[in-house]
Specification:
The chain has one domain (13-214): Rossmann fold (3-Layer(aba) Sandwich), CATH 3.40.50.1820. The chain starts with 12 loop residues before the first strand and ends with a helix. The protein is of the alpha/beta class. Helix 2 (82-103) crosses helix 3. It has helices at residues 38-47, 82-103, 117-128, 169-181, 199-214; strands at 13-17, 25-31, 55-60, 63-66, 72-75, 106-115, 135-139, 155-161, 186-191. It has a seven-stranded mixed β-sheet with strand order 1-3-2-6-7-8-9, with helices on both faces. The relative contact order is 0.15.
Amino acid sequence: MREHLIKTSVSGRYLLHMPSRSGPAPLLVGFHGYGQTAEDEFDLLCSIPGTENWLCCSIEALHPVYTSKGDPGSSWMTSRDREQRIEENVAYVDAVIERIRALYYVTETLCFHGFSQGSGMACRAALLGTYPASGLMLIGGDIPPELPVSASIGRVHIARGSSDPLYLQEQLEQDCARLQDAALPFVTCNFTGLHGPNDEYLQSAGEFLEEVLRHPSL
């Protein structure tokens, strides 16, 4: 048996929330968790205080799945053909950002946000993509261990619910140690909760975005 890969075109889907005021706006790009949709991440982004002043973009993963409840959702990748999927996903995100920059009045301030499986995608977009980030926000998911962290991810907000069964405290501590070793500025949010955001997280995330706006370049 001989295995071959062939490139083909598929349609990606993303949602936009326009800023409430006119003029150039910073760009916040979000990635949902496994089995979720662009709507899930869109609602999360729009729930963070202060994002009404950002152009918010929620990107949906290219690979459809059904959840355990039978609902349609999407996944960023599995272990199969992983490196190929990573390359395709990063190119997909770059294409979305390129189109947004061509059509809308945005500043150079770019922040990536990822939840659960989307955290890895947010890291890859910041570290492997074309557009350098001013900030990176991760909740309920780790920094992919094979990725070398660097200043191209900007400042980092990394969060975990105190009773999260999927993203363990040990993983959070390992990620923080990697950021510290790379001498990158980061904020840790240990909120009381499970595998998902709550008001405590949203407040911390909003404060982080304010800091990014005050100091977009490190």
